Prior knowledge:
It is a single chain. The protein is of the alpha+beta class. It has helices spanning 23-43, 49-58, 60-71, and strands at residues 4-7, 10-13, 20-22, 72-73, 78-79, 82-84. The protein has three helices and six strands. A hairpin with a 4-residue loop joins β4 and β5 (78-79). The protein is globular.
Amino acid sequence: MPWVMLNGSKIDPTYDFKSRVPALDNGEMFWAALALSRVWEKKFPNVFPQLRNRFDEVFWKGMIRNVRKVFFNETTMKIRAVANIKDVKLPLEEN
């Protein structure tokens, strides 16, 4: 992932990705999270079901709720390959 770097024990964005997110890898992350949830539900239905439900709501369902806001340009009617974020500390609704 060329937009992040390892900094000791944590991952930080590279200097040119402090306020940007790439669409392609978010799509890959979405499918991985959905697959994980489905396997968890099927193979281990009684292991932390509340945690799985929370994971679903925050992770891949959250991505579904926000994908248009982040990666679709309403003006040009095109999908963004990279989304620019005005202030990464603000909620999505305020960017």
